[in-house]
UniProtKB/TrEMBL annotation:
The keyword Nucleotide-binding does not apply. The chain crosses the membrane at residues 12-33, 54-72, 84-105, 112-133. Residues 7-139 form the DUF2231 domain. InterPro entries: DUF2231_TM. The lineage of its organism: Bacteria, Bacillati, Bacillota, Bacilli, Bacillales. This is DUF2231 domain-containing protein. It comes from Alkalicoccus urumqiensis (Bacillus urumqiensis). Pfam families: DUF2231. The keyword Membrane applies. Keywords: Membrane, Transmembrane, Transmembrane helix.
């Protein structure tokens, strides 16, 4: 019998925040040229992505047991790195979201550049988190 909700849930839900965060980062960079449009788009992408990121982060713990069961102890080499980068990514995008809300009420040119820098850092962290997830799953093949 097929189930509607996959087990573990983490691999099924993690890709939504990844896509939203990458687009939010891109929109933050583009907001340097057209802030009226891209600020709003970036805020939507970042806020929905961060909500999904929190959910994805907490579903990761359930996926560890399944990964160990399927792939064995070899996942341990990259599991810690994946978990650490996932936490750094989540915290970075929470900070971005907080600063975006501040920008709604108090626009600031310096803060805009800080946001762009954090957006680039966040995108790099998303890449590193995904890289170690891939190494975790496929390094033995």
């Amino acid at each position: 019998m097929a189930y509607i909700i996959p087990d573990p849930l983490h691999p099924a839900v993690v890709h939504i925040p990844i896509a939203l965060w990458i687009m939010g980062s891109l929109f933050l960079i583009l907001s340097l040229w057209r802030p009226a449009f891209f600020d709003k788009a970036a805020l939507w992408m970042t806020s929905i992505g961060t909500a999904g990121g929190v959910f994805s982060y907490f579903t990761g713990a359930d996926a560890v047991g399944v990964a160990l069961q399927i792939y064995g102890d070899s996942v341990g080499r990259f599991l810690g790195l994946h978990q650490s980068f996932a936490l750094y990514t989540l915290l970075t995008y929470i900070a971005i979201l907080v600063l975006q809300v501040v920008m709604l009420f108090k626009p600031n040119k310096v803060l805009r550049y800080v946001l762009v820098g954090l957006a680039v850092a966040g995108a790099v962290l998303v890449f590193l988190t995904g890289h170690y997830a891939g190494r975790l799953m496929y390094d033995n093949f």
